[in-house]
Design a protein that fits this description.
Blueprint: E1 6-9, E2 19-25, H1 29-40, E3 48-55, H2 61-71, E4 76-81, H3 87-97, E5 102-105, E6 111-112, H4 116-124, E7 130-139, E8 144-148, H5 158-164, E9 172-175, H6 176-179, H7 190-201, E10 206-217, H8 233-247, H9 252-269, H10 274-283, H11 285-288, H12 292-299, E11 342-346, H13 361-375, E12 379-384, E13 393-396, H14 406-413, E14 420-423, H15 429-432, E15 439-443, E16 455-456, H16 459-465, E17 470-471, E18 491-494, H17 503-513, E19 517-520, H18 526-538, E20 543-545, H19 551-560, E21 563-566, H20 576-583, E22 588-591, H21 596-599, E23 607-608, H22 611-620, H23 626-636, H24 639-665, H25 714-758
Parallel strand pairs: 2-3, 2-5, 3-4, 7-10, 11-12, 11-14, 12-13, 14-15, 15-16, 16-17, 18-19, 18-21, 19-20, 21-22, 22-23
Antiparallel strand pairs: 1-4, 5-9, 6-10, 7-8, 7-9
Helix pairs in contact: 1-2, 5-7, 5-9, 7-8, 8-9, 9-10, 13-24, 17-22
């Protein structure tokens, strides 16, 4: 048997390799051949070498390695340890023995695309010490491959890479000089302790938005699936990051926030050790608390508020650490609910009544949002067409009502205390008018009216509008949809019968493949259906139109279909049918229009670029398993996730409004009192003065106060009033004067009369 660290084969070649690929092997003989062959099949294998470290394997891995060494003796270095030394130590040995200018890592149970290192190396030659790529997650025992992001944000920067790049080493290419700056710790989670530091030390790291690595998930015996005291090695990894952050001021905040994110993650990931993680957070409170990253992440509910600094959760002063999971995978450390909000939901008068029965599109989303808000204890009032049935109070629209009537109608009928209005109208008429309270507009359909705070139902819809805005994906309640893994042999089109929905293309697919097609949905264009669709439906016994379907019939169709066709030819803002089908366990084939690629991001193979491709996949595509489709929707497109995001926006909007209101009250430190009668009163005997060029505004949404014809000076008005008063007093004085004269005259006349009589 070979001794520790004994090199089986290392032949010096005249040309030094450009890239060294390091593979650490420990009892992975079942997958090892595929892994090593994918490396040898690289398009630039002629400038590469392979370094294999057999870390004490007891299975047949050694035989496989020896076979590949004989096949490529000049380009394979094989190192064998008699006993397991650990992944960190093996990587350090591999780096020391490698001869390439650049180094990559591949796990022995994974494999790579044949052009992976060519693409990474080409990018690295532009002056990058590290290049990151996307990868595929390969699920064991299932023929399923899902693309994943190596970097999860829209804009790649070095700081963002520390926060949001995957810490794994295998989807990256490193310059050897960079790896020589640190050593891998020989602990579990050695990648957590090293990758953020390597990114911070790299010269201009780069990112390729291309999946090139195939990562095998759920392998028994992996660290992710293991437990035991070694889990606490993560504490040593965090210690190393904190130590590096204190020495590296350039990326100190990013590395410390990365540690904070890890603590949040591991509290849920390994709940049996949660008390240790909470204690670690308490110990390092001074370093990890506060900061702009923390504040934003707490507001968006990316992390919990560990220290209670942002009023979002239980602070760290709690004496007992509870470590068991609560309902729906939420721990008892989860954020506490804030006060109940008072929300008005408004939908367009032209919409259908909002209820649980047979609603779709905008009406469906308004129903889901309203029900979830009420369920969480918020006070909701819904302005909707007559016949709407929800758990909240409903204010029905009068007859012959239009969008333009809405603002005035809401002002007259709304409750006295309201925090915010959520405007779902197609014209955003409520947001256009000054209501005196915050208004948040959501655009469910394309519109030419946008605001800085507009909310779109997908990134595609926002891009089509050509403006910056917010995105909240639509969500559905999983409990309202039936799930089935048993499928019947028919295709399904479900939606409104319009040319834009591409019904004709669904018929073409069925005709080409000789497959059964069921078309369901209300007819919105009678002429189109009568002249174009009906003749082709009547001439094909495999195609059936069954009209509009009720909720139970719709669910039965969705859960039993082999596949749902979504051949829409217009830019769908979202496409609710996509997630309704997947939550039922049914795959969807969609044309690449609108938000289809975004909604089906986890299954890009289901997005087609032509009708030919759609027809081919409808007949031959191996669809993802039903439970995987359902799980995908549960993690991204549920009502709970949607409402979480909306509540965050509600609170932000309300806080912004309150700040503006406070500023209005404090006009240069002077106090003004606005009375209901729109008159000004003296405050404790002091005279009110109009500030230079400033106008007083009525709070609570009233119009601007016209203070005595706006620009009139108060002092001048008072002067005029004083003049009038003086005139009045002068008149009174004159009256008294004349009365006195009359009295004197009377007295003089009386005296003369008496004098004459005395004579």
């Amino acid at each position: 048997m070979l001794g520790s660290n004994e090199i089986i084969s290392k032949v010096e070649t005249q040309v030094r390799p450009k890239i060294s690929v390091i593979v650490t092997v420990f009892n992975t003989g079942e997958f090892l051949s595929k892994c090593l062959q994918s490396i040898i099949d690289q398009t630039i294998w002629n400038v590469m070498e392979l370094v294999i470290i057999n870390d004490g394997s007891s299975d047949h891995s050694s035989e496989i390695i020896n076979g590949f060494v004989k096949q490529e003796p000049e380009r394979i270095i094989s190192i064998h340890f008699a006993e397991n030394q650990g992944v960190g130590n093996s990587r350090n040995v591999g780096i020391a023995q490698s001869r390439g200018d650049y180094i990559g890592f591949v796990d022995s149970d994974d494999w790579i695309a044949n052009n992976m290192f060519e693409l990474l190396y080409t990018k690295a030659l532009d002056g990058h010490d590290m290049v990151i790529c996307d990868y595929f997650s390969r699920y064991e025992d299932e023929d399923l491959t899902i693309p994943e992001k190596g970097f999860s944000q829209d804009v790649f920067t070095q700081k963002q890479a520390i926060l949001y790049a995957q810490v794994v080493p295998w989807n990256k290419l490193y310059k050897k000089e960079l790896l020589q700056k640190i050593e891998y710790l020989n602990i579990w989670y050695e990648d957590v302790a090293s990758t953020p530091i390597l990114i911070s030390l790299a010269n201009i790291p780069a990112y390729l938005n291309i999946p090139l690595y195939y990562y095998k998930r759920s392998r028994p015996g992996s660290i992710a699936n293991s437990s035991g005291p070694k889990v606490l090695d993560i504490l040593r990894a965090w210690d190393r990051l904190i130590e590096h952050a204190q020495l590296n001021n350039s990326f100190k905040e990013e590395i410390l926030f990365f540690v904070t994110k890890c603590i949040n993650y591991y509290i849920d990931f390994k709940p049996e050790y949660a008390d240790h993680f909470w204690e670690y957070a308490r110990k390092h409170r001074e370093l990890l608390s506060g900061g702009e990253y923390n504040r934003k992440a707490v507001e968006t509910k990316e992390i919990r508020d560990l220290y209670g600094l942002f009023n979002m959760s239980t602070p760290m002063d709690a004496t007992k650490y509870e470590t068991k999971y609560a309902a729906k995978n939420e721990t008892k450390y989860a954020t506490k609910n804030k006060r109940a909000l008072r929300i008005i939901q408004v939908i367009s008068p032209i919409c259908s009544p909002v209820s649980a029965v047979d609603t779709a599109g905008t009406e469906k989303m308004v129903y889901e949002i309203t029900q979830e808000l009420v369920k969480r204890g918020h006070k909701v009032v819904l302005y909707a067409p007559k016949g709407s049935k929800v758990s909240a109070k409903v204010v029905p629209f009068p007859k012959y009502f239009e969008d333009r009537h809405l603002p005035a109608f809401i002002r007259k009928t709304r409750p006295s205390k309201v925090d915010l209005i959520h405007d779902h109208t197609f014209s955003s008429i409520v947001r256009l008018r000054k209501m005196g309270i915050p208004v948040l507009p959501t655009h469910h359909l394309p519109t030419n009216i946008e605001f800085h705070d507009s909310v779109y139902v997908s990134h595609a819809a926002r891009m089509n509008a050509g403006v910056k805005g917010l995105v909240v994906h639509n969500g559905i309640n999983p409990d309202e949809y039936e799930y089935s893994e048993e499928k019947d042999d028919y295709l399904l089109f479900i939606g409104r019968i319009l040319p834009d929905k591409g019904v004709i293309h669904a018929i073409e697919v069925a005709e080409r493949n000789h497959q059964k097609l069921i078309i369901a949905g209300p007819i919105k264009d009678e002429e189109y259906f009568r002249n174009i669709l009906q003749p082709r439906i009547d001439n094909n016994e495999n195609i059936h139109y069954i009209g509009a379907v009720a909720s139970k019939q719709k669910q039965e169709l969705l859960k039993r279909a082999r596949c749902v066709l979504f051949p829409s030819i217009w830019k769908e803002p979202f496409g609710l049918v996509l997630i309704e089908a997947m939550i039922s366990g049914t795959p969807v084939l969609a044309l690449n229009n609108g938000a289809a690629l975004e909604v089906l991001e986890g299954f890009p193979q289901l997005v087609c670029n032509s009708i030919d491709e759609l027809a081919h996949k409808a007949l031959h595509e191996p669809f993802p398993p039903p439970h995987v489709l359902r799980e995908y929707v549960l993690t991204k497109f549920t009502t709970a996730i949607m409402v979480d995001q909306y509540i965050t926006l509600y609170e932000q909007k309300i806080n912004e409004f309150m700040k503006r209101r406070v500023k209005l009250k404090r006009l240069r430190g002077r106090k003004f009192k606005l009375l209901r009668g729109r008159k000004l009163k003296r405050l404790r005997g002091r005279k009110l003065k109009l500030l230079r060029g400033r106008k007083l505004k009525l709070l609570r949404g009233r119009k601007k106060l016209k203070l005595l014809r706006r620009r009139t000076n108060l002092k001048l008005l008072r002067r005029r009033k004083n003049i009038k008063l003086q005139r009045r007093t002068n008149l009174k004085g004159r009256k008294k004067y004349f009365i006195k004269k009359k009295i004197k005259a009377k007295r003089s006349v009386t005296k003369r009369i008496k004098a004459r009589s005395n004579r």
